[in-house]
Amino acid sequence: MNFQYKKHFIIFTLCIMAGCPLYAMENQLFVAMNDTKVTKKNSPKDSSRIPTVFFDLQLKNCDTEMGTLINNTIRKQLTGIQNLNLISIDEMNTVYDSKKDGICSDKKCAKRYGRKLDAQMAIIGKITKDIRANKEQMGKEGELQYLYEVKKYDFYTIKIDLIDILNDEQSSAFIAGAKKNEVHRAIDEIITKINEKYRHLKAKGPPKLTPWISVSASCIVPHGRFSQIIKAAEGITLDIGLKNFLAANTYCKLSGSYYFSSQQVSCIKQFNSAQVSFMGGYSFSLPAGFSITPSIGAGCHIHYLRDYEQLNKILGQRIKRTYIDPLVTIKCEGAYEFYKGLHLILTPGYTIFFEGNRMGNYVNIDLGMKYEIEIPDNKQ
């Protein structure tokens, strides 16, 4: 009886030891699920911390209960990262409904809702469960040491994408995996990597209104009837504008150009043209300091022609000396920032102007420099 009692006691003790890690992990995750009520309260605004939105990770072959526990644990631990200001669930619910809008698991979705929430960073990703197997020795003595058995187990892989909503410069990806009873270790590994990343990040305020000025050498090449007057004209373009005018990366500018043409490239003795337009556009940032800014605008130009009697003979109609015509223009500026605030720019464009019941058009191209003027913050 003594031997049987000891045998049962040892088996019972081993069962408890084997079950403790799984119980501890599930209990830890359960506590985290209950603690999500804390994150539902609005987080205090802190300009020194980085506003971050966490979207529940997408589940792939993963049971809902386990996925929910992992998501809630990650959300809870994110609140402990010193430089991270986690946007609350209540605040998220004002613009995003996972049941209606679906799981937000791609960069485009994260940026769309992140901007609405005034977040700087977004966290998305997925949890994948797969079945793995290990070959284990059945014993250490006798015949058992030569026998092996295959044991299957659930393995969870957590993949995190940290998205820089503003410009992609600080985006990162992290991955970790573990068995079911060791998932908390994988979560801790992910949180450690995110914490290390946030140590080197700085909070960015709303984009500042940035004035800029550019000067370019310019030329125009007319099409249609206008090309019978001049073949080309050279000149200068001066642009004055504002970056982040209505929203981040939006542009507006007042553009003024002056062109002239000699008799060598025209059928008249003198051609002069002044153009003024107001334009708006959006700037797209590219890697390595490059950017492109398509824009559209409207304005007017003044053409002055000398020796217009000669034009009467060429065009077969009476030509005036001076024209003032409305116009519509589109341009696409390509820029390279080679020094802080200083850009080399190349800007092709196309202009249509209206003269009575006729239209004229020409292609223009500008090559020059642009300088963005940094306005320092006012510090009391």
Task: Explain the overall architecture.
The protein is an alpha+beta fold and 380 residues long. It folds into two domains: 25-198, ABC-type transport auxiliary lipoprotein component (Rossmann fold, 3-Layer(aba) Sandwich); 210-372, Porin, CATH 2.40.160. 25% of the residues lie in helices and 44% in strands. It has helices at 2-39, 64-78, 89-92, 98-101, 107-116, 183-198, 308-315, and strands at 50-54, 58-60, 84-86, 121-137, 148-164, 172-179, 210-223, 233-243, 250-261, 270-282, 284-285, 290-306, 322-339, 342-355, 358-372. The longest helix is centred in the first third of the chain and has 38 residues, at 2-39. The chain is elongated, with a radius of gyration of 34 Å.
Physical arrangement of strands within the biggest beta sheet: 7-8-9-10-12-13-14-15
Helix count, DSSP H or I runs of 4 or more residues: 7
- CATH class category of the largest domain: Alpha Beta
For the record, the count of structural domains works out to: 2
CATH superfamily of the largest domain: ABC-type transport auxiliary lipoprotein component
* CATH domain topology of the largest domain: Rossmann fold
Point out poorly predicted stretches.
20-43
Task: Look at the helices and sheets and give the structural class.
Answer: alpha+beta
Alpha-carbon distance between the two ends: 85 Å
Shape: elongated
Number of strands: 15
Strand content: 35-45%
- Return the CATH architecture of the largest domain: 3-Layer(aba) Sandwich
Major beta-sheet overview: 8 strands, antiparallel, barrel
Average pLDDT for all residues: 81
- Our Rg estimate from Cα atoms comes to 34 Å
